[in-house]
Amino acid sequence: LEDEATDFNLNPGSDKETSLKFDIPLEVEDGDYDLTVTIEGENENGFSYLKEIEFKVQVDKEKHDITFSKLKFSNDKAECGKPAILDVTAINFGVNDEAVKLVISNEELKVNLSDSFELSNDPFSKDNSFSKAYKIMLPSVISSGMYPLRADLFYGNDIKSSTVELNVKCSDLS
After folding, report:
1. pLDDT tens, 48-65?
2. pLDDT digits over 89-100, tens only?
3. What is the 3-state secondary structure (H, E, C) of 91-153?
4. C-alpha angle 109/114/117, rounded to 5°?
5. What does residue 64 show for φ and ψ, rounded to 5 degrees?
6. How far apart are alpha carbons 114 and 132 in whole angstroms?
């Protein structure tokens, strides 16, 4: 982690507060981490100052926390009677291993897909995430328009839901 504050002047006997912002990486384990803040300065005579301050940063993760990191159609526009490809990635950010059921649905498009998988709690394991491309065959006889598909992740006693829209274009056969 690294951040830098903007330079400023500080007169003797004065103090100044500044903020540093940093993001905790997604791939991190629960626990305490050392954080060192280095302060550098120079007085009006060109004499350099350096001060390091040590902190402990505690990272607490939720027990159960699975999130869609990708829920997107590979093509923004789909045609009636042709397939649409939905790319899905789910990641376990929680501290527990999880048995997960994924359900993707839309009543108008007659979509009702489900898949089950296990996710590891180890943020550095390839088994910490699940990725798959789903081929969704669109009906031949539907109206052109935007169709929302619902995606639900069921794990433990929790449900994480999201939606993705598909723009369907149909030829008018009048």
Report:
1. 888 898 988 887 777 889
2. 999 998 899 999
3. EECCCCCEEEEEEEEECCCCEEEEEEEEECCCCCCHHHEEEEEEEEECCCCCCCEEEEEEEEE
4. 150
5. -120, 115
6. 12
